[in-house]
């Protein structure tokens, strides 16, 4: 009886995978034409492609530590295992040397490799499908101009069956629809440019989008916040004023933050510091203004703080730790120092319901990116080797209740959970 049930379940899964593959093939056939746009001036196209590679921060994933730029090999941790980014240089044997512009377009637009294999959604083709063909061609031309580097692909380390073609086909059937970005007629050209960049090549929802059990986001236009479990950081919601909404920021402040990684009251830390360093600081002024316009217009939805039992004794321990280790820079009243150390009173990173980022900063320090607009950022030392898990929780709890702050206490268990689920 059990054998029949197992065989029946496998047959149903195979049937679903086959149906998904057939449906996906129909979607691919109905996708926009893969006819390349007129190439235009070669030098202009290369310059444009280099700029678009910055917009997408392609080197961020496709460059291993100490490796050649764009030669791949960096591991991208996911809940299902590690995906290793491939070589994007024009090496004929291990890179894109034998690829055509049509094949590159298909990878971006449909998530298929040169040989037709389905690609892992760790490569965010659910965002890149929105990229227009002329931009894809310019990006491909730039990648083809890079020095060729022989760097064989590292096999992915994914738990079975998540890396199988059948599993990917099922995922795509439920979670992916190809389609180039279409301007919203209700909005002006600047807003649409910002939406095109943010939803497409900049793939903001890849981090800031919430994910279901299959690892899929609701769509490239949703930025509801998500725990980057394998990194130990939380990508806050861009729709929530209590988290990272910028609807109340001025356009000038948001442009400064995207350009330099800081403005009064906020600094880019953790994964976002990498984004500013490798991508947004290099954006043209018009595109920064467009992204600022779009991000400031996102619909707002405020979360409700959880109700938890307070622990006054823990906060008292934290108050002593703050006086000993933190007050010298951030001030006795948590007001910080203008241009150097951020205020902690009213700081959204301190107050977010999810305390992961606050704990991560306490543990590993805080280091904003060194950018042209902020070439020598002030940093904060790490305290993981100095404070116990209970002391880290105590310090975080104090910060979340001092100087008018109101947020739930942090427990030692929160610290331990963060340590157990992250990848360093």
From TrEMBL:
SUPFAM superfamilies: Cytochrome c. Keywords: Heme, Iron, Metal-binding, Signal. It comes from the Bacteria. Residues 44-147, 189-299, 313-403 form the Cytochrome c domain. Residues 1-19 form the signal peptide. Pfam families: Cytochrom_C. PANTHER family: BLL4482 PROTEIN, BLL4482 PROTEIN-RELATED. This is C-type cytochrome. It comes from Roseateles aquae.
